Amino acid sequence: MQSWIRSGGSGSRICTSVVLMVATLLSWSPPLTGDHNSAIATGSLNENSIIISDIRQVSQPRWIEIDLSEQRLRAWEGKKLVYSYRISGGKRSTPTPIGRFRINSKYRTHRMRGRGYNIPDVPYAMYFYRGYAIHGAYWHNRFGTPVSHGCVNLPVKQARRLYNWTKTGTLVVVRR
Asked: Which of 28, 55, 144, 149 is deepest in the core (most CB within 10 A)?
């Protein structure tokens, strides 16, 4: 540490205070608004004018699209495709609900019970409507084929990635 900061005189305390205030003012940036389409510009001062050196988009809202006719889940950040996975949706007798939903709860593991099944430790469960969830399935490997009781099954590794990518409130759009 510099000696002018460490010395005990009253002049050094004033100097230290001034340095801290200037550093705080220079590092301040305006708060981000809720507008997901706003851009952030960074730059430098050059003879009373600002040179913009970097313009980047603030991240777009994340959402999940489930296409049951293709048995495919796509995860989007705005219009950018982030993940695309084969799934197993609901069988004809136990269909996956169609519509727009939001992830309302997430569980690292969860026991799932229903008529004809009782599965312990279902990994990476993300509930989006009543008892329907997107989750990992360790008990089958028939992805691309509708075999579930209405949930959206993924291979466990893919379910983990999606679970870590989403948060409660993420939009889920399910279509035929």
From this structure: 149
